[in-house]
Write a structure and sequence with these properties.
- The protein has helices at about 10-25, 30-70.
- The protein has two helices and no strands.
- With about 90 residues, it is an all-alpha fold.
- The mean pLDDT is about 85.
Length: about 90
């Protein structure tokens, strides 16, 4: 059985697409259909693991970016740029 380390996300996704097409086409025995269904479940789980890993990486990158911003500055704004700091605007 191929696992996450053996298949890239794209490989697992493409094989899953193929499995679904074969199941939708019909003409398979019950045993063949069950085997394909089980393979599809494993492939879907592999895709899910890759996506969870990607989500965790994005979350970590966003947290690192937020931590790198100036202390006390509102997220997404530079100090002194449109946030009322020293330019005559009300800071709310």
């Amino acid at each position: 059985m191929a696992d996450r380390e053996a298949l890239s996300y794209e490989q697992a996704r493409d094989e899953l697409t193929s499995v679904v097409k074969r199941l939708e086409a019909g003409g398979l025995s019950l045993e063949q259909s069950l085997d394909l269904w089980e393979r599809g479940e494993r492939l879907a789980a592999i895709c899910g693991e890759w996506l969870e890993g990607a989500r965790a990486r994005l979350t970590a990158a966003m947290a690192a970016h937020d931590a790198a911003e100036a202390p006390g500055a509102p997220a997404g704004r530079e100090p002194g740029k449109g946030n009322g700091a020293g330019n005559g605007e009300t800071p709310f």
